[in-house]
Design goal:
There is one protein chain. By secondary structure, the chain is mainly alpha-helical. It has one domain (42-119, 126-427): Ammonium transporter AmtB like domains (Ammonium transporter fold), CATH 1.10.3430.10. It is 69% helix and 0% strand. It has helices at residues 2-21, 28-37, 41-69, 75-102, 136-155, 164-187, 192-195, 204-222, 238-257, 265-293, 298-312, 321-346, 354-372, 384-412, 419-424, 426-431. Helix 3 packs antiparallel against helix 4 (75-102) and helix 9 (238-257) runs antiparallel to helix 10 (265-293). The protein is globular. It starts with a helix and ends in a 7-residue tail after the last helix.
Length: 438
């Protein structure tokens, strides 16, 4: 009798425990929405990671890389300008930038379907036509990170003399009138360059050619810094620059491999090509310095790595490891010659060699992409001629529109700080702060 009672007591306890630990089924609507969306968890996780890596390239990567190259009295101004521009571009991207870049309307510009971030609210958000296996808000953030870093690159051409208020107006007009149309042309399936077959896997044209062109024209419009060519303007902290270069190199894996928009073999291939191109660019720049100057500088090694990263960007999803090496070697040599000769020959004060690295590197990479692309990796849709014409079209458009935008801003407020403020340094003159010991 006692045995029976113990048995029934144990059975009742077990049933109750099982009932308490059994998982509660998810609501039918949530399950149905997840299934119908067809999102891939691994792809989504990778794209979230890649987005963070690309944002890391700007905050703090490009800030550290650029700030270390500047005079100490202006280093904080670059950090403030980049941070403020990032915040403002983020807001304008949600209001209009994303819709103009990545919705269908015409070959020249997107429509208004995603104005004010319509259709991006979870859980109802679907996948974008370019990335149906991930939620559209993830694609939205990934593309925002590209817009942010492209403008941050432009700032490198005009540091130490441009007012932060003018930069804020410039970044808004630049995003809406230059970046969004170009991104639509090249990356949206309905864009006129995309329909022509232009090959730009991760932004050789959209990011680097555009940034190099905009930066060069902005430097010409603003004019030279006080003392340019007559006073030494040495980098104040190359260890900071090295740290920034390292963050850029690491973040570039998200930039290029993330542009596969999935966690697959193409992303892995892009990562390999990216790393080997950076290494080849670093090596050849150092070799050029050794031959010409009998010394290898840390700045040169950092610059060579960036040159290789820039040039492989449009090709990373189309070339193999050795294609990446060839691109890195060519870019290291071409950008070295541009960086050491361009300012001296033209007299244009492109402060941190944005055109020499990004403009020249982006153009070179765009030209080499169809030449070195492998059909075994992805379809080859362009020729050297069509890719060159596409890159040149973006270069000319960005140059003309940058000039127009800056002329308009100049009618409303001054672009430059005063000579007295420039001599004092923008950190104190514009922000009331300075680095210790500067």
């Amino acid at each position: 009798m006692l045995t029976k009672r113990l048995f029934f007591l144990f059975a009742s306890f077990s049933s109750a425990a099982f009932a308490q630990t059994e998982p509660t089924p998810a609501p039918a609507q949530t399950v149905a929405a997840s299934v119908s969306a067809g999102f891939n968890s691994a792809d989504t996780a990778w794209m979230l990671t890649a987005t963070v890596l690309v944002l890391l390239m700007t905050l703090p990567g490009i800030v550290l890389f650029y700030a270390g190259l500047m005079r100490a009295k202006n280093a904080l101004s670059l950090a403030a300008q980049t941070l403020a521009a990032t915040a403002l571009i983020t807001l304008v991207w949600a209001i209009a930038g994303y819709s103009l870049a990545f919705t269908a309307d015409s070959p020249w510009l997107g429509g208004i379907d995603r104005m004010m971030a319509q259709g991006l609210r979870a859980p109802g958000a679907a996948g974008h036509e370019m990335a149906k296996n991930i939620p559209e808000p993830v694609f939205f953030m990934f593309q925002l990170a590209f817009a942010v870093i492209t403008f941050a690159l432009v700032l490198g051409a005009v540091v130490e003399r441009m007012r932060i208020g003018s930069i804020m107006v410039f970044c808004v007009l630049w995003l809406l009138l230059i970046y969004a149309p170009v991104a639509h042309w090249v990356w949206h399936p309905g864009g006129w360059l995309a329909q022509m077959g232009h090959m730009d896997f991760a932004g050789g044209t959209v990011v680097h050619v555009l940034a190099g062109s905009s930066g060069l024209v902005a430097a010409m419009v603003l004019g030279k810094r006080e003392g340019f060519g007559t006073e030494p303007m040495m980098p104040h902290n190359l260890l900071t620059t090295m740290l920034g270069a390292g963050l850029l190199w690491i973040g570039w894996f998200g930039f290029n491999a993330g542009s596969a928009l999935e966690a697959g073999t193409r992303a892995g291939n892009a990562m390999v090509a990216t790393h080997f191109s950076a290494s080849a660019g670093c090596f050849i720049w150092g070799l050029c310095e050794l031959v010409q100057r009998k010394k290898i500088s840390l700045l040169g090694l950092c610059s060579g790595a960036i040159a290789g990263l820039v040039a492989v960007t449009p090709a990373s999803g189309f070339v193999d490891l050795w294609g990446g090496v060839v691109i890195g070697l060519c870019a290291g040599l071409a950008c070295y010659l541009a960086a050491t000769q361009f300012k001296a020959r033209t007299g244009i004060d492109d402060s941190l060699d944005v055109f020499a690295l990004h403009g020249v590197g982006g153009l070179l990479g765009s030209v080499l992409t169809p030449l070195l692309a492998s059909a075994a990796i992805a379809p080859v849709t362009a020729t050297v001629l069509t890719n060159t014409l596409g890159a040149l079209a973006v270069l000319v458009y960005a140059a003309v529109m940058t000039f127009v935008i800056l002329q308009i801003i100049q009618l409303l407020l001054p672009l430059r700080v005063t000579p007295a403020q420039e001599r004092e340094g923008l950190d104190l003159a514009q922000h009331g702060e300075q680095l210790s010991g500067s």
